[in-house]
């Protein structure tokens, strides 16, 4: 693929200086450098062979990991990202994100004892945040503040609830592919919000991009979008696209992929100009039919196709992008993925032989997805806002362990002291509905609120441990609700594959196994999202003929966590799950009663 039009990057201007100590959670100041970088490395010597780099940009940090051709993590590092939180509005800076990416890549390669020219391929994964840039690639503000640095609407931003309701009121046929309704976390409502509230910014934006697509664009100068993001968050019809792709008719393919009537009726018809140029660039030569995954989403969003591409660019400006990361110019870059889906690529072939009936993601299959809007962030909120949290955090730091590990230990001691039959039974009087940031799936109710029952005046570490456990259980009951909904609509889900940071918490995993009543499979490599991103780079570098071949080569079987065989555990969780479901119904009743009172 040839390099595109020369870009004049404006994101080399340093931001505010980032201190070594973290600022308050409501606002994080930042700078280009120096960065606080957390790093880990493998103790085993690396093998001679191909090396792949995976980059994952999350809500609070950018991470990078270097993997060998066996899928072994050689070194990983992370660097924090600034974030502005003002009520339902959550914003970031693409400038700061890129600087964090560069810092984490350099540190990861250093820890892995890998020189930049040794990296064979790169892949990016990121949250579904929305990035706004002008024709030169410079940031365009999406903030009431007018600060041009704040050009990213973070995935969890809920400013566009009213816009989502307006879009859903049209009952467009395209909504059947995203669970019947768009979420305020999807891009059309956010785009409509900007158009209605920031007209000057709206007129300045030349490209609206998902964050993962912007990362590959920033690295290569090519703005071809991933079908993963456009289908998952933008209502692009991937199945129609794939059908036309097989017939090799590019014009019809693009026409079928977008429902132009949908964009017109919701008030965003101007995005159709120039063949939808501001929101997508899908060109025939960028598709590799033998490396396409086609997924569909039934619950909340999603028909999710994935296509991979090989990008090699050597212009002076793009050479600088690679140099910023400490890499050689021209390294193949894979088409980006949403972080959760990169995690799937990094785990789906990790099923042990004894559990080989669990199916992997296969080319042109459909994927049903459901998710919760807050899990890790919710646990952090519960812990950090409790009076016992500061001394507990200090003790964790002094013991060089995590606060989760200390809470797990406290719960074990409490179980023994109270002669509880099992750890989960400690929360018999404490119940949590985890909808602190709305309900994404399967109810799709952004107005849903979190509920905690069984609170007392106790401010001890033990009480915090109980709230922590009850919150974990609430999240697991939410997962059970999603899976039950899937199984009630034709699926037969009987195995969970876990990835992400919380999969490293044994209590979290065991509670999910017990509450779901099915085994939870953990991969050998715990950094599944980074591995998934690295696999994209491996395919882009043509080290493997297909994505599935790369997944088989780089994934490895891990531990299987099985549910308790104690019938009392099942009976207990069945009872708590019933209460969990009732909490939402009670909330609806209360919401209706108060609406009538204020009518």
UniProtKB/TrEMBL annotation:
In what residue span(s) does the Carbohydrate kinase FGGY N-terminal domain sit?
A: 52-249
Q: Which InterPro entries does UniProt cross-reference here?
A: ATPase_NBD, FGGY_C, FGGY_N, FGGY_RbtK-like
Region Disordered: what ranges?
1-30
**What is one Pfam family matched by this protein?**
FGGY_N
User: GO CC annotations?
Assistant: cytoplasm
Question: What molecular function does GO assign, one term?
Answer: D-ribulokinase activity
Q: Which residues form the Carbohydrate kinase FGGY C-terminal domain?
A: 360-541
Q: Which domain of life is it from?
A: Eukaryota
List keywords of the entry alphabetically. Kinase, Transferase
Gene Ontology BP annotations:
pentose metabolic process
Question: Family per UniProt?
Answer: Belongs to the FGGY kinase family.
Q: What is this protein called?
A: FGGY carbohydrate kinase domain-containing protein
């Amino acid at each position: 693929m040839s390099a595109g039009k020369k870009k004049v990057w404006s994101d080399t201007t340093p931001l505010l200086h980032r201190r070594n100590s973290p600022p308050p959670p409501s606002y994080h100041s930042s700078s280009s450098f120096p960065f606080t970088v957390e790093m880990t490395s493998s103790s085993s010597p690396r093998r001679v062979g191909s090396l792949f780099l995976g980059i994952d940009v999350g809500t609070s940090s950018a991470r990078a990991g270097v993997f060998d051709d066996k899928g072994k993590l050689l070194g990983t590092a992370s660097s924090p990202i600034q974030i502005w939180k003002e009520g339902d509005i959550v914003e970031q800076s693409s400038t700061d994100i890129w600087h964090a990416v560069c810092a984490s890549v350099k540190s990861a390669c250093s820890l892995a004892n890998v020189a930049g020219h040794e990296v064979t391929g790169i892949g990016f994964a990121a949250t579904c945040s929305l990035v706004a840039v002008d024709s030169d690639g410079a940031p365009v503000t999406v903030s009431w503040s007018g600060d041009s640095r704040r050009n990213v609407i973070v995935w969890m931003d809920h400013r566009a609830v009213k816009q989502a309701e307006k879009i859903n009121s049209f009952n467009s046929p395209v909504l059947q592919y995203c669970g019947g309704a768009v979420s305020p976390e999807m891009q059309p409502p956010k785009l409509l919000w900007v158009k209605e509230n920031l007209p000057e910014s709206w007129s300045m934006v030349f490209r609206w991009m998902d964050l993962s697509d912007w990362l590959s664009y920033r690295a290569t100068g090519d703005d071809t979008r991933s079908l993963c993001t456009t289908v998952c968050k933008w209502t692009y019809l991937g199945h129609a696209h794939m059908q036309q792709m097989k017939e090799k008719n590019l014009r019809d393919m693009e026409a079928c992929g977008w429902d132009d009537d949908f964009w017109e009726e919701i008030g965003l018809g101007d995005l159709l100009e120039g063949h939808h140029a501001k929101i997508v660039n899908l060109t025939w030569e960028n598709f590799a039919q033998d490396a396409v995954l086609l997924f569909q989403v039934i619950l909340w969003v999603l028909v999710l196709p994935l296509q991979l591409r090989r990008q090699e660019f050597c212009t002076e400006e793009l050479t600088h992008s690679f140099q910023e990361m400490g890499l050689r110019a021209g390294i193949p870059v894979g088409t980006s993925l949403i972080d959760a889906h990169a995690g799937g690529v990094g785990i789906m072939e990790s099923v042990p032989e004894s559990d080989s009936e669990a199916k992997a993601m296969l080319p042109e299959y459909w994927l049903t997805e459901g998710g919760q809007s807050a899990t890790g962030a919710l646990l952090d909120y519960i812990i950090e806002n409790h009076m016992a949290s500061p001394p507990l955090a200090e003790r964790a730091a002094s013991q060089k362990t995590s606060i989760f590990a200390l809470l797990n230990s406290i719960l074990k001691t409490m179980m023994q002291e109270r002669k509880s039959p099992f750890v989960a039974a400690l929360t018999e009087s404490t119940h949590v509905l985890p909808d602190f940031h709305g309900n994404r799936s399967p109810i799709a109710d952004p107005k849903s609120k979190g509920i905690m029952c069984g609170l007392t005046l106790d401010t001890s570490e033990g009480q915090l441990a109980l709230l922590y456990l009850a919150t974990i259980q609430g999240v697991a009951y939410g997962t059970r609700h999603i899976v039950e909904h899937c199984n009630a609509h034709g699926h037969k889900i009987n195995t969970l594959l876990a990835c992400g940071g919380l999969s490293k918490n044994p209590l979290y995993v065991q509670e999910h196994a017990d509450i779901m009543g099915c085994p939870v499979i953990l991969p050998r490599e715990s950094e599944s999202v980074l591995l998934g991103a690295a696999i994209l780079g491996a395919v882009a570098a043509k080290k493997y003929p297909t994505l599935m071949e790369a997944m088989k080569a780089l994934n490895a079987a891990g531990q299987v966590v099985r549910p308790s065989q104690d019938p009392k555990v099942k009976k207990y969780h069945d009872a708590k799950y019933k209460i969990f479901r009732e909490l939402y119904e009670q909330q609806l009743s209360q919401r209706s009663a108060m609406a009538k009172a204020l009518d």
